[in-house]
Every structure is written in structure tokens, then in C-alpha cells.
Amino acid sequence: MMAEADYLGIVSENRVPDKVARTGLHVAKSEFVDAPVFSELPLALECKVSKVTKVSEDYHTDTWI
């Protein structure tokens, strides 16, 4: 399962639209947040955004924390 999890993390879905299907993993709905989890993986880290702060108007850099 580590190879599949690694693949999901390093491959862009913009370049490989079916990347999840290529892993053979099954997607399920999280019971805690509005996000998918993978049934075969023993661990999923689920987070919620509690605050968004814009620090700059510069659109050339990532200005969100």
C-alpha cells in the first residue's frame, strides 16, 4: 500500500486524471469531514480549516496561511 499512497501524493491529477483508479484503491466517504478516504489504508489524517488569513495582495506567491 505504500507505493500506492506515494503515487497518489506525487502524481498530479491534472496530468493523470485517473490516478486513483490506477492505484486500485477504493474511495469511501469520511465520517468526520467532507473528504474522501481510501478503504485499504489503515490511517487517514482528516483536517478542517479553522481560519484563513490573507497576508498580501501579491498574486505571484502563495499568500494564504
From TrEMBL:
SUPFAM superfamilies: FMN-binding split barrel. InterPro entries: Split_barrel_FMN-bd. It comes from the Bacteria. This is Flavin reductase like domain-containing protein. Gene3D superfamilies: Electron Transport, Fmn-binding Protein, Chain A.
